[in-house]
Amino acid sequence: MYIASLSSSSTCGNAYLVWDDASRPILIDCGISLRRLTSCLRQLGMELRDVAGLFITHEHSDHVRSMCLATPVPQRFEFPAFAARGFWEWYEEHRPRYIDPDLRRVIEPGQPVQVSGLSVQAFSKPHDAVEPLGFVVESQGERAGFVMDLGYVPERLEPILRGLEHLVFESNHDVEMERNSGRPYFLIRRILGDYGHLSNNQASLSLAKLVTARTRQVILAHLSTECNTPEIARDAVSSVLLAEGKGPALYTAPPGELAIYR
Q1: What is this structure's pTM?
Q2: Which terminus of the chain faces fewer neighbouring Cβ atoms within 10 Å, N or C?
Q3: Taking every pair of C-alpha atoms in the chain, what is the biggest distance, in angstroms?
Q4: Comparing C-alpha atoms, which of 205, 145, 152 is closest to residue 169?
Q5: How far apart are alpha carbons 117 and 135 in whole angstroms?
């Protein structure tokens, strides 16, 4: 299984690609420009017409930028877009861009979808959006969890995420940096709340429960460019995992650059 982070932050947008040697790639979110999507795929030796499907976590702009074009990216390249029913209702009301009804697909939590040899299972998560989802992608016995944009990790998600070979996991902010950032109080309160974003400490404690001997790598994602650094995030998580005797490969996804993991 190959995972590529095309971009991973609120300021630069979020988009991830998953594929294997026998499958076409799928996109997780498309919160970057069409030009950047095209450039990233070409660096990987692919074109957007190669994409087998798009899976949308939620409607915030840093996750759906290329869905908001005059001709949305799934329509332009004729691949299906999977999202929660609530997302499509929001999209119809707020972003009435034309997508062929046959390309609009509803995905329900807990019901796997098969796309080009990959199995994708959605799960609901706590975030201030309309029916936000995370995803577990399975390919040839390997599984990757995409766990971003959530204020905490509910216990009900632990059996779904524990022991996955790959975890793309939010470690958005350092709490003290966030509190002292000078940002508006409502924004700080939102980010620190149960429907905001995971802090480094929250990510550390959750990963201590989710990482097992099967876990090959953890990719810390959606880092704040103002209230976090890759070094702070890695140190926070690695110290807790090492104290638990757990040592998967640990990376941080860059905010606006292509990075490949396997």
Answers
A1: 0.97
A2: C
A3: 52
A4: 145
A5: 16
Specify burial of residue 20 (Cβ count, 10 A radius: 0-12, 13-18, 19+). middle
| Residue 96 confidence (pLDDT) | 84
Q: Which domain holds residue 113?
A: 2-261
Cβ(63)–Cβ(9) under 8 Å?
no
Give residue for tokens 């350092």: 174
CATH number at residue 174: 3.60.15.10
- pLDDT tens across 93-111, in order? 998 889 999 999 999 999 9
Could you identify the residue written with the tokens 């409607």?
A: 59
Amino acid at 254: P
Tens-digit pLDDT profile for residues 157-189: 999 999 999 999 999 999 999 999 999 999 999
Q: How far is CA 59 from CA 2, 137, 206, in A?
A: 26, 20, 25
- DSSP bridge pairs for 72: none
104-106 and 26-28 as β-strands: parallel, antiparallel, unpaired?
unpaired
Tokens of 37: 């999507």
Task: Give every CB contact of residue 254 below 8 A, 6+ residues apart in sequence.
Answer: 5, 8, 230
Q: Count up the domains in the chain and report the number.
A: 1
Angle between helices 200-210 and 230-243 (to 10 degrees): 40
β pairing state of 217-221 and 249-252: parallel
Amino acid at 96: P
